[in-house]
Amino acid sequence: MWWNLSAKVSGKFPNPSISLWVRWGIGLWLVTLLSACESSVTPMGPVELNSRYNDEQPALSGDGRWLAFVSNRNGKNEIVVYDIQERRFLQLSGLNGKGAIAESPSLSRTGRYIVYLSSIRGRPDIILYDRATRRSEILTQGYRSWLRNPHISPDGRYIVFETARRGQWDLEVLDRGTSVELDIPDGSPVVNP
Amino acid sequence: MFQRFSLFPIILLTSLLSSCAGYPRLLNFPYDPGGRSLNSRGSELNPQVAGGFIVFVSDRNGSQDVYVYDAKNRRLIDLLGLNSLNVISSDPAISEDGRYIVFAASFKGKSSIYLYDRETQQKRDLTENLQTEVRNPTISADGATIAFEVGKNGQWDILVVDRSGQPLNIPGTPR
After folding, report:
1. Considering only CB atoms, which chain B residues are within 8 Å of A55?
2. Of A92, A111, B57, B123, which has the maximum CB count within 10 A?
3. Thinking of the domain B43-175, which architecture would CATH place it in?
4. Which residues pair with B147 in a beta bridge?
5. Contact of A139 with A177, CB cutoff 8 Å
6. In angstroms, rounded to a whole number, what is the distance separating the alpha carbons of residues B46 and B78?
7. What is the ipTM of this complex?
8. Which of B165, B81, B79 is nearest to B129 (CA)?
9. What whole-number distance in Å separates Cα of residue A34 and Cα of residue B76?
10. Interface probe, candidates B16, B20, B25, B26, chain A, greatest A C-beta count within 10 A
């Protein structure tokens, strides 16, 4: 506790004015620490799509409503998602990890699944982010070759990407399986396999 | 006593292995050195998948061209009038019904975004009036919206257009 600490410090310094300085110093330090955590306020109303920085690698959702791209606008390379209908940016928690560059985003039909390439431990991995559960999943855990340019199908089941497995760029298709929740439009009939 | 305990790791192993055989898994498409399948002796780049169609570019015929592979019927689809020998094509994208394909093309030092209609077998330059570098086009699965990068203001910006090339009414659209 800080009062114990300042008591200890004041025990070292018999001068009461010094212990007062220490107490103020700790107080100020705490204030700066707390204020640094405050997040920036997002403006309301229509927001401009482009910035003064590079906005690259656009990907549209299947219904054409969402636009994901790589932007350098916040001082770091990150994937942002823009709502073309409402003209604003989505706030996505857990999409952009610290210390990794994310690139090549793609979206499923309603933008539920976001697939992108990231190199978390220095090797490229394909990450699937589910907006419904707000969770990320590494799809290429244990894959033994260099890879790039992933792209998810509109229904969210297949992911196609480039692989260096044969010593040149070839294509590989990943099937997420029959048990995943497909990204289908609202109100469409569900066919059981 | 010993036998009962040795059963545990076996059960553990079988359950572990059987879970590995499931999903997600990689699909096996035939590799054809003659260039009639998905993968060939050339390089295959920039893939996109929609509605069972895999669109990509490949240099298998000596020019970087656009190819569409029908994953259900396991064959390449003919794209009459799309590729030319003196054009470098890149970054293709396809609509879910397989009708519309957008791609970037570099011809005589100018970059353009083309929209190809498989029904009419015609392609159209969507960036005819843009005096700037363009790249990385994409089309939505419903085929109605197209987005690509323009290098007009000294950095890359994103332009969203409809199928006729008209920009959508989005604030911050580069002019």
Report:
1. 149, 155-158
2. B57
3. 6 Propeller (2.120)
4. B138, B160
5. no
6. 19
7. 0.85
8. B165
9. 60
10. B26
Size of interface A-B (CB pairs under 8 A): 141
CA distance A171 to A6: 64
Ranges of each domain in chain B: 43-175
Q: Which residues of B touch A51 (CB under 8 A)?
A: 172
Length of chain B: 175
This prediction's pTM: 0.80
The closest CB to that of A49, out of B48, B140, B158, belongs to B158
For A60, the token pair is: 């549209």
Whether B26 sits inside 8 A of A174 (CB atoms) is yes
Contact A130, B15 (CB under 8 A): no
Sign of CA dihedral B74, B75, B79, B80: negative
pLDDT in tens, A103-149: 999 999 999 999 999 987 788 999 999 999 999 999 998 898 999 99
Q: Which residue has the tokens 């994409």?
A: B138
Could you give the CA distance from residue A89 to residue A50 in angstroms, rounded to a whole number? 11
Mean pLDDT of B7-12: 60
Pick the residue of A170, A176, A181 with the most B CBs within 10 A to test the interface with B by mutation. A170
* Among B residues 99-158, those touching chain A with beta carbons less than 8 Å apart: 136, 138-142, 144-149, 155-158
Q: Is B14 exposed, middle or buried (0-12, 13-18, 19+ CB in 10 A)?
A: exposed
Partner-chain contact A176 B174, CB within 8 Å? no
Interior angle at CA B91, CA B121 and CA B80, nearest 5: 20
Which residues in chain B are closer than 8 Å to A61, comparing Cβ atoms?
140-141
Nearest 5°: the CA angle B29, B92, A163 is 40
Tell me the C-alpha distance between A41 and A43, whole Å: 6
